[in-house]
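Researcher: Next sequence.
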Amino acid sequence: MATLIAVCGGLCCGKTTYAEALGRERRAPVLSIDALMLALFGPDAGEMHDEYARRGKAYLHRQALELLDAGVDVILDWGFWRQEERRSVRALYEGRGHLFELHALDMDEAVWHDRVAKRNAAVLAGQVEAYLVDEGLAAKFWNRFERPEDGEVDVWVKE
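Model: Next structure:
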């Protein structure tokens, strides 16, 4: 039976690096909302960003279900910042008869600040295609992120 793995964590915590490594290990495709958004809209979708992300996630869920129905494990690479989203995603996939795992990345705040600074420098230097984490995006994250509880996490990844 195919497994959906949802990778949960904050900005710059290593979700994509983890998801890609897990994808190679499990021979599973990684569906990334950031990769989709950046490919379609570049680094700034403006005021429509949240709406486009909502639509993009719905599309990626449909793709994931097709792959799972074909017997292929799938990794979703996005934050799953809210408990309600994590709960509803688990219900969606388990309700369709698929296995579901939530992998949550956790890191020390000092490490997070260091990673944000390094990523921002790489973005500004044109070395990576990613979102610049400015004060507004950092505040949005900290206002929305609900740290997962131990009971909802299948695999903890400590940084």
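Model: The CA atoms of residues 111 and 159 lie 8 Å apart. The chain has six helices and five strands.
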